[in-house]
Automatic annotation (TrEMBL):
It holds the Pfam family YgjP-like. This is YgjP-like metallopeptidase domain-containing protein. PANTHER family: UNCHARACTERIZED PROTEIN YGJP, UTP PYROPHOSPHATASE. InterPro entries: UTP_pyrophosphatase-like, YgjP-like_metallopeptidase. Residues 18-64, 80-175 form the YgjP-like metallopeptidase domain. Signal peptide: none annotated. It comes from Candidatus Doudnabacteria bacterium RIFCSPLOWO2_02_FULL_48_13.
Amino acid sequence: MNQKGFMQYHLKRSRRARRLRVAVYFDSRVVVTAPQTLGQNAIEQFLAAKQEWITRTQRRFARRPRIVLPVVGDYSDNKDEALRFAQSKVLQWNRIYGYSYKRISIRNQKTRWGSCSRKGNLNFNYKIRFLPERMTDYLVVHELCHLQEFNHSPRFWQMVATALPDHKYLRKQFRALVDAK
Ligand SMILES: [Zn+2]
């Protein structure tokens, strides 16, 4: 969300909040929780006052070591096993959903872990086999749900939550991995 050129932040309105709160997440997202009726100006003033702390915290998170993936050799050495692995994971999680898909392919991309095409094809990075297990689960469930819902709407996340109630936590962990080569 981008509020008129001001720093990017997510705004949550809360009936219970008595005052403004700001949190900086591990993936450097800024989330502001505000009382229901508080005006935009008050929120932005508050954020301006906190700006220095926010930037400092974001920098600190950025410096944190990312989860390092093992060196896994090259694509052609791993492609077939990665495909079998991805197929079995998709089958496993699709028992919950029962969606239909066309084909599963393995890709060699630096920063993409998975995708779902509008035609109903699922693609996964050849390093999928080397992700921590919960991360694989998150990736596969995420792409599976895109077969049904081609966006990240609340409905989409509801579907993800059917299989993974802790998906918010998993997503945060996953994002820490995304640009790990
Ligand atoms: Zn997605």
